[in-house]
């Protein structure tokens, strides 16, 4: 071996020693950091347990007539996790909507409850369906869900939690309220929150809780069965202690969207982790096609004090600060009535503490131009606003995007706007006798429109539905309001309240 070869060999050995030393040091660092992580997780778990012991829900007295009872007869074995009754993949038709009397539930108890007779259940499960104006979807879901749960040998009760008022939907408040009401009913081992428009395609996706919160619906046909957005939306499964440790959902999200992301933050902050279903490949769902009625870009009345979407963006991400004080522990509601039927138990939840028969808000300037918000219930009508435009860029969001190019006659526009309900606020003239539908009211006087406004007409028909909070009502006996200027302090406003 030459001297050069000897030097290269020595250098190679030195490099190997350095690499081995680095690997050894890396292992020590990894072991240390992992130990610190485990200690931190254990500390968080102990903290959560202490919080749970002190939490008022853990001491809530239950109804003396429990809806389910654990069957521990010695002759009965424990139900298998993968029941022999399972059939696997199902053929789901989202267009099939059964009538109420066509929905088969087997031998359910009053209130939509069932438990197996040939084995004693592993858990008692509460299924909570947050609900508002989706009757056809509810029928389709119940028709699919009852048979699946019974083939799984899952002991369950189904609760439909409906928001009583006709304002914007608040999924977080509905779910927090229903959770508290469910725990008054029975000592459930597991709570599942189930969107009403999602139908399971396989009964091997088991509706029974695990040691961590589970995202039961990771694969949806709408997203080509690929992971989507949040890891904790659609259908979620938690033990009561999981939901309590996360302090439930936020109560700040009025309308559709983003509350699931916030809930994922809350679970991540807790001592628990979001996990996948045990039978992941079978966690497939079909979503019933629909338009979101309360998409947050479609709000006509914006309340910056109660809706997190209108708070500064940096506040939204401060979930760590918010989640400890705002959520399950701060939810305010009233359960107006409980109705128990063959298919489910119905909670009628009132989310607003203040109930008024009539409320009018007037924005005024120099005593002439006014915009009126009136909660007094009246029939809908169309108010013609002369010398008024809604530019195309102001009046469209994704819900009505497919109508962007349509020019309709007056009768056609009125008929279509009536059909769309809260998703249409009126229609603006574009060419003589032809109109375009509008989803967002942004009224501009014809002499105050920007140069790039592509609406050629000179008047607008505004949909006025007094008493419906989805609409701003224009005062009929006053001159045209200029909506772009209707923001304090430009306009003063007054409230008139009548009990």
UniProtKB/TrEMBL annotation:
Organism: Oikopleura dioica (Tunicate)
Gene3D superfamilies: Spore Coat Polysaccharide Biosynthesis Protein SpsA, Chain A (3.90.550.10)
Entry's family note: Belongs to the glycosyltransferase 7 family.
One GO-annotated biological process of the protein: carbohydrate metabolic process
Listed PANTHER family: BETA-1,4-GALACTOSYLTRANSFERASE, BETA-1,4-N-ACETYLGALACTOSAMINYLTRANSFERASE
Function: Catalyses the transfer of galactose onto proteins or lipids.
Residue numbers spanned by region Disordered: 45-65
Keywords: Glycoprotein, Glycosyltransferase, Membrane, Signal-anchor, Transferase, Transmembrane, Transmembrane helix
GO cellular component terms given for this protein: Golgi apparatus; membrane
EC number: 2.4.1.-
GO molecular function: galactosyltransferase activity
Enzyme class: transferase
Residue intervals of the Galactosyltransferase N-terminal domain: 79-210
Membrane topology according to the record: Single-pass type II membrane protein
Location relative to the cell: Membrane
Domain called Galactosyltransferase C-terminal: residue spans: 215-291
Bias-annotated ranges (Basic and acidic residues): 45-56
Database matches in InterPro entries: Galactosyl_T, Galactosyl_T_C, Galactosyl_T_N, Nucleotide-diphossugar_trans
Pathway(s) served: Protein modification; protein glycosylation
Keyword Nucleotide-binding: no
Name recorded for this polypeptide: Beta-1,4-galactosyltransferase
